Amino acid sequence: MYLGIDIGTSSLKAVLIDGAQRIVGSRTVSLDVSRPHAGWSEQDPESWWQACQAVLDGLAAYHRSELAAVKGIGLSGQMHGATLLDEADAVLRPCILWNDGRSAAEAAEISAVSERVTGNIAMPGFTAPKLMWVKNHEPEVFAKVRTVLLPKDYVRLMLTGDKASDMSDSAGTLWLETARRAWSDEMLALTEMDRSQMPDLYEGSAATGTLTSELASRWGMSGSVVVAGGGGDNAASACGVGAVAAGTGFISIGTSGVIFVTADRYRGNPAGAVHAFCHAVPGTWHQMGVALSSAGSLDWLANVLNASAGDLVDALGERPTGPSSILFLPYLSGERTPHNDVAIRGAFVGLDQADGRRELTQAVLEGVAFAFKDCLDVLTMPLADPRRLIAVGGGSRSRYWLSVIATVLGLPIAVPEDGDFGAAFGAARLGLVAAEDADPFAVCAPPAIREVIEPIGELAEAYGAAHAAYCDLYPAIKEAMPR
After folding, report:
1. Do 292 and 221 fall within a single domain?
2. Low-confidence spans in the chain with pLDDT less than 70
3. Count of domains for the chain
4. CA–CA distance from 318 to each of 84, 399, 415, 467 (Å)?
5. Contact 429/443 with Cβ under 8 angstroms?
6. Are residues 22 and 105 in the same domain?
7. Domain check: are 293 and 350 in the same one?
8. For residues 261 and 273, what is the distance between their CA atoms, to the nearest angstrom?
9. What residues are paired with 147 via a beta bridge?
10. What whole-number distance in Å separates Cα of residue 84 and Cα of residue 134?
11. Are 177 and 184 in contact (CB under 8 A)?
């Protein structure tokens, strides 16, 4: 048996799989986010550990014998979070999360060096600018920092007593020289940090330590339980859907949207606000484009209209007939790829008195598809085009939406058979690899595919024209926004 634990922003989830990678059990506990000021986003690291214990206690209650047979644990987690520990490993302040924008000035200060060293623009959500903000605004806290850990790696510390991280998650700190898969002394010095404050680095499929005997006894486990390096949430999700070979990838239609493409070598494209990170499997990298409000845009519209998102989408049917006359810019929380603009905000353009729920819903779904197209266009500059993308996330349940996205992207979208192929499942796979010294590329195989949604050829030209009009709107909306 093997266990995957994913430390998300809104919940912590554990998945238990057997040797054939069948899911035996799973459990989820909700997490709260604190927003003490506009643009801030924080969590108490202790809440992750309490949630971790709760999910494993729950699995032990219903799957005692299976949990007792666990040989390997993999970890996945939300990226970029700054968990600051003192010399006694006590938490110094709440963790500053990935969607916290307070360090915009600090990010701008180091971005030129970051682009050269890491291949990534320094964005406020990344870890290194957050430490600069702490240095500038909470110097008494900064002076006490002895270790900086990412969220999943704090949970690792609680599980094993070890300070370790994997390459994929560490790449999102901006302290990693991504091409060499090693800490960068130049980036650390730029933020007045050094290697002594960083955890040891491992590949995501390698063993970093073992579960403490006390915790193993608590959950009825015997023998040595290996804990794998694991991965950042998107790299772990890629392991879950089998996107580990060069040219494979997935599209995640969740609260935010992600297009993820795997590469066999490091390639950066900071000019396009692309994330160029290490993968969670050895000798592999990936590029990622992020749209900050994907299914989140649909949820926003559903809340405004006092309707369910499912009902809004179902009313459109299964197959689009062409683009809407309304354009929607899904910049409700700013945008990452390709604009790196935390201040931009969304808009409807072209509204008519005859327009209602159906028209607004169609425009929102198309606006998100156009945002994905923007991501794909900058990802494919230095990469071979992917042949298809596997769809994951809540939005992938809509055949209509997938048809729109496939047509806009000009790529087939593969829909897996029913199952859980998310970050926790990918983490469990990495736990299996570490425990059994297995081949990660063999273990992280693609799932069985239920259906492949092909682009609608006769609509490609119309959607291409609509996307071009959408692209023209960004500079106009930016210029019109209040200063």
Report:
1. no
2. 381, 384
3. 2
4. 48, 6, 15, 21
5. yes
6. yes
7. yes
8. 15
9. 85
10. 10
11. yes
With beta carbons less than 8 A apart as the criterion, state whether 311 and 400 touch: no
* The one catalytic residue among 6, 166, 233, 374: 233
- Measured between alpha carbons, how far is residue 394 from residues 249, 252, 296, 439, 478 in Å? 17, 8, 10, 30, 30
What values do phi and psi take at 288, rounded to 5? -145, 130
| 443 falls within a domain | no
CB 298 within 8 A of CB 291: no
- In single-letter form, the type of residue at position 248 comes to T
Q: Does residue 44 carry a catalytic annotation?
A: no
DSSP-assigned states of every residue in 42-76: EE-HHHHHHHHHHHHHHHHHH-HHHHHT--EEEEE
Domain boundary among 234, 255, 287: 234
**In this structure, which amino acid lies at residue 345?**
R
Residue 435 lies in a domain: no
Residue 369's domain comprises: 242-420+448-483
**pLDDT tens readout for residues 79-121:** 999 999 999 999 999 999 998 889 999 999 999 999 999 999 9
**Shared-domain flag, residues 253 and 193:** no
Considering the domain architecture, whether residues 114 and 13 belong to the same structural domain is answered as yes
Rounded Cα gap, residues 465 and 133, in angstroms: 43
CA–CA dist 165, 75 (Å, integer): 10
The residue among 236, 157, 148 whose CA lies nearest residue 193 is 148
Q: Report the first-to-last Cα separation within the chain, whole angstroms.
A: 56
* 283 and 363 inside one domain: yes
Query: How do residues 403-426 score in pLDDT, each as one tens digit?
Result: 999 999 999 999 998 777 789 999
CB atoms within 10 A of CB 180: 11
Burial class (CB in 10 A: 0-12, 13-18, 19+), 377: middle
Q: Work out the angle at residue 390's Cα, subtended by the Cα atoms of residues 387 and 392, and round it to the nearest 5 degrees.
A: 160
Where is the domain boundary, 204, 234, 264? 234
- Same domain for 290 and 392, yes or no, is yes
* 256 and 178 together in one domain: no
Angle of helix 151-160 versus helix 45-62 axis, rounded to 10:
60
Q: What 3-state DSSP class applies to 93?
A: coil
